[in-house]
Design a protein that fits this description.
single chain, about 400 residues, mainly alpha, Citrate Synthase, domain 1, Cytochrome p450-Terp, domain 2, 3 strands, about 55% helix, globular, binds s-citryldethia Coenzyme A
Amino acid sequence: MPHPSSNQKDTESGLAGIMAGHTNICSLDETLRYRGYAVSDLVQCSFEEIAHLLLWGDLPTATQLEAFTGRIQHAAQSIPQTVVCCFQGLAETSPQTSIMDVLRTGVSLLGQLECDNGPKESPRAHDLSQERMKAEQLLGQVPALLATWIDCLRGESPSRWPNKPLAPALLEKLCHTKASNIATTVFNTTLILYAEHEFNASTFVARTVTSTGSDMHSGVTAAIGTLKGPLHGGANEKVLHQLMDIGVPENIEPWLARKLNDHEVVMGFGHRIYKTGDIRADLLGDACHRLIYSDSTYEKHQKLEKLAYKLEQLLFEKKELRPNLDWPAARVYHALGLPINLFTPLFVVARVSGWTSHIIEQMGNNRLIRPLAKYVGQAPRPYVSIEDR
Ligand code: SDX
């Protein structure tokens, strides 16, 4: 009996539309909410307030925020020397290595140094505050890993992490100068909008790893590897390469025609869940516009904004496709003077808050994640010994 062709696109392909579990952390119905709060309200917060909301379940009081921010800063200021030495060696031998691989290696090394073997006893009995402490450590360590790598590439000893909230501290470390208020505010907005997004591919991987009883560092390491892919986190870097390829408005039509004729995807557009628009793209698109038209510093980026706007219009006309978060995020990071190969690593810095929150939620009410597969292979057949083959 012929089996359905294995390349038949059925509704479950990519688990599209499949409800794969429950979560208290994020909902995408009607609008994007973190723990019940609309993200359009949350963009006025600091990234630390959002990370606290995701990890602890509530927006912090001023006292809680100060303590939480201090713990994250302390973690950022205490990267083990073993990791620094490893990064210095890697920067010498393979300076071109993907920064996503550097973060994946760094988190894996931290897990090894901290002997993270996951929750000691069954999570139900297990006090998850130890896991929350690991999460807070990683919230500070991951951006510090990024800054350490950049220092190593420059042949410099890692400078001390600033006693500031994460957005101004990281921007100062990466740009080697104090950023303006509007630049810091818009950068902070990118971290909030990248923080969490329900069962996206990298988060689902983190939960799957943890559902076996494995540890948080293994879950985050696997999630970083997942986010690296251009259909997921890696899209934001490709967005800028695309805009650079197009260069001028008159190239948009032929460039897009070629893309669509070759059945290639346009990076920064489309979404598995959002078919009528990604609220995050709207919020960050407005912030991007405010930044770029804020003062003459960004004048040279206005040309790219106009190009982006024209491509957006044309792609909607041709395929009714709308931008996702990566579309404005790439332009914001570029306008802030950040190199393209830092864009997806910045997504990691923010998403560590979502990944670790989901890992803790999985640990707190765990069942091994093990879906079924529909067999579409060979029909049953008799064995043939090697002499008769
Ligand atoms: C993120 O899950 C999350 O929440 C992820 C994320 C998060 O916060 O974690 O939101 C972050 O990953 C955002 C997405 C970043 N990726 C990109 O920008 C890459 C480009 N986008 C596409 O690859 C695509 O839109 C996906 C992968 C994001 C979603 O694809 P789906 O849901 O599998 O949709 P599909 O491939 O079935 O496409 C349906 C149709 C197809 O046309 P037909 O074959 O039916 O004629 O739409 C077309 C696709 O070809 N299409 C695109 C397109 N996206 C969909 N065509 C051109 N360019 C695109 N970007």
